[in-house]
Amino acid sequence: MDKSAESYVIDDQDAGLFRVNRRAFTDPECLADERRRVFDKCWIYVGHESEVSHAGDYRSRNVAGRPMILVRGDDSVVRGAGSAQHLYSSWIAGMPSEIRQRQDLPVSLPRMDL
């Protein structure tokens, strides 16, 4: 069965017909395709700076199926990343020691400065 985006939507303006196949709301392959086509190509809202109001504060969450972290460093700069590796290597000097020592931070997404 064809699972391309075209197979989920019928948009026939001449016939006044617009239908969305219910698989578009339940099919895991459709969700994966949507994430690739939309979220791999745009900025993703990770959180608001008020969520990390003090140096050392951090929030981790999944956004669009990706593990992300938002952290305020000792230098008061708010940073977001999808990779603990990028967090460690790119701006470790600004991170409090409690953050540097954590082993459970998300991994494998590109760095994003906020």
Summarize the structure.
The chain is α+β, with helices and mostly antiparallel strands and 114 residues long. The protein folds into 2 domains: 37 residues, no CATH class; 65 residues, no CATH class. Helix content is 27%, strand content 25%.
Structure, described:
- The protein is an alpha+beta fold and 114 residues long.
- The protein has two domains: 5-41, no CATH class; 49-113, no CATH class.
- The chain is 27% helix and 25% strand.
- The protein has five helices and six strands.
- It has helices at residues 5-8, 23-26, 28-38, 84-91, 97-100, and strands at 9-12, 17-20, 58-63, 66-72, 78-81, 111-113.
- Strand 4 and strand 5 form a beta hairpin.
- The protein is elongated and about 60 Å long.
- Residues 106-114 have low confidence and may be disordered.
Q: What are the SSEs and their pairings?
A:
Layout: H1 5-8, E1 9-12, E2 17-20, H2 23-26, H3 28-38, E3 58-63, E4 66-72, E5 78-81, H4 84-91, H5 97-100, E6 111-113
Antiparallel strand pairs: 1-2, 3-4, 4-5, 5-6
